[in-house]
Amino acid sequence: MVGLTASDVPPTLAVKIFSAGVAACVADVITFPLDTAKVRLQIQGECQTSSAIRYKGVLETITTLAKTEGPAKLYSGLPAGLQRQISFASLRIGLYDTVQEFFITEKDTTASLGSKVSAGLATGGFAVFIGQPTEVVKVRLQAQSHLHGPKPRYTGTYNAYRIIATTEGLTGLWKGTTPNLTRNVIINCTELVTYDLMKTALVRNKLLADDVPCHFVSAVIAGFCTTVLSSPVDVVKTRFVNSPPGQYTSVPNCAMTMLTKEGPLAFFKGFVPSFLRLGSWNIIMFVCFEQLKRELMKSRQTMDCAT
Length: 307
Known about the structure:
By secondary structure, the chain is mainly alpha-helical. It is 72% helix and 0% strand. The two termini are 26 Å apart. The relative contact order is 0.15. It comes from Hexaprotodon liberiensis.
């Protein structure tokens, strides 16, 4: 298409990582209230008290939070969320294409489904170990008022890092790595592979050009598939990460406690906000990511021509 000739030039690794980090941060800022609503709905039922506020539905949860705790509470944990995206999304998305090349055999002319899945597993797993402390702090800040009354456990992002490290040890910052690793491997594989396959199919079959509408449709489908597969693990991860020391003996114990006390539907608590969040996050992130890559490559071509 006119004005998109830079799409023919493969973006460099640095461009991919930078574009992924920026796009993920933009998506996080816009969709963060939905993520906070998701966390509150997921932990509901974990601590039953007579004065506990009950949330019903996405919009009611957001409205209740804004009324009872102030609009700023919808963005509690945002700094940790942005730190998470910079360390996590930039790696898992930015490195995806590069890692994928290592799994392509000599017989393959293009990336197979196996190489795509392998790349998703590798980049997702690596990113979790780097970004897990930011995930722990984000979830704790989003959930703290619901479980711990008027006196919060943490006064801010860096206060949370310090208190967790001093009271629970450095390993406390990597609490819930196992369920988060499982969750993010599922999310990374489903999200990136589905998006990649959908975009390739739409362009190859000439249903849509490699532009914003194509990226939009691919992102919506990827978001829905990802939410369905990752929701049970996501709920267990949120419960375990947010729990005080000693509440659950292990991740399987957390899952079994949920199952026996609340039933199987507990694993899909917060599904609607999860889909709204993942769907909208995917749309914003992938569209920004694709456009930012192109603009950066255009700028680079212009600078090369000028020199």
